[in-house]
Amino acid sequence: MSTVILTKWGNSVGIRIPAAILKEAHLSPGEQLKIMINKKGGVTLVPISNPQEGWLEAFNGIADIENEKFLINVTNDFDEDEWTW
Question: pTM for this one?
Answer without folding.
Answer: 0.51
